[in-house]
Amino acid sequence: MEREFRYTPADFNRVREVLLQLTGIKLADSKDSLVYSRLVPRIRVLKLNEMRQYVAYLAAHPDEEEHFINCLTTNLTSFFREPHHFEILSDFIASGEKVERIWCTASSTGEEPYSIAMALVQHYQRFDISTRVLASDIDSRVLAKAAMGVYPLDKVAGLANKERFFLRGKGKHLGQAKVVPALRELIDFQRINLLDQQYPEATKSDVIFCRNVMIYFDKDHQGEILSRLLAKLRPGGLYIAGHSENFSQYGHLMKPIGRTAYIKL
Ligand SMILES: C[S@@+](CC[C@H](N)C(=O)[O-])C[C@H]1O[C@@H](n2cnc3c(N)ncnc32)[C@H](O)[C@@H]1O
Questions:
Q1: How far apart, in whole angstroms, are the C-alpha atoms of residue 81 and residue 211?
Q2: What domains can you pick out in the chain, each with its CATH number?
Q3: Sheet-wide strand order for 150-152
Q4: Dihedral through CA 90, CA 148, CA 190, CA 115, nearest 10?
Q5: Which residues of 42-60 are buried (b: 16+ CB within 10 A; e: fewer)?
Q6: What is the set of active-site residues?
Q7: pLDDT tens track for 41-82
Q8: Residues lining ligand 1, CB < 6 A?
């Protein structure tokens, strides 16, 4: 295929190595075209001539790492994705468990932490609650979007009680919905790389959502990250994984209580 910028298999492999080292994300052989299309905008912005130059630029400029990571993450998400998990959360609280801090570890553009916050408000039937949600992601661009809390109307159209949780945009904001301040205030946003050896103190949690991100890591990284996450979860705390993330081999650390939901032993 004729490409605007020279791009060789060696460039692809170097990009994969750097991404794995920085984020734990392991890209399959089939992702070579995706890498090219995601990084081309950076090559243009930096006025470079080929991918090899971009790889060299990245090695020489640590500041570029954030852009590099932002370009290569996959941020697919939606409000109340895997809805059974929000029922499990509500049942967990209803059973009398203390839930003061919830960490949403790969929160992407915010639909997941806002869903958690909406589930809390629905459960307690008020906004004025002591529970706080920490939403984190490695991608600074999606975090900034999440913190704004502005979504196209069609993304929130199907939500129950949307009038309670969103303001409809007017004038130049027509077609958009903005999270109400009382919901936004329940959430703190912070950039956290799950590959970091130490997670900040603020990540100490009663409940951890870590959904649809472990799938991007290899087995070794998955095991290491899981044990660091569990170190931040109190005994008896709730750990919620994504639909294709199964931790049955960690039965000595946590006990399954529902579809990809576990209690830390
Ligand atoms: C597919 S989205 C999942 C979003 C949400 N958890 C859900 O289930 O709808 C995966 C998210 O993981 C983030 N991610 C990837 N590697 C990460 C890492 N090493 N540390 C933290 N977040 C990471 C990506 O930036 C992306 O926003």
A1: 10
A2: 9-72 (1.10.155.10), 84-264 (3.40.50.150)
A3: 150-152, 176-179, 166-168
A4: 10
A5: bbeeeebebbbbbbeebee
A6: 38, 137
A7: 999 999 999 999 999 999 999 999 999 999 999 999 999 999
A8: 23-25, 73-77, 81, 106, 108, 112, 137-139, 142, 193-195, 211-213, 216, 242
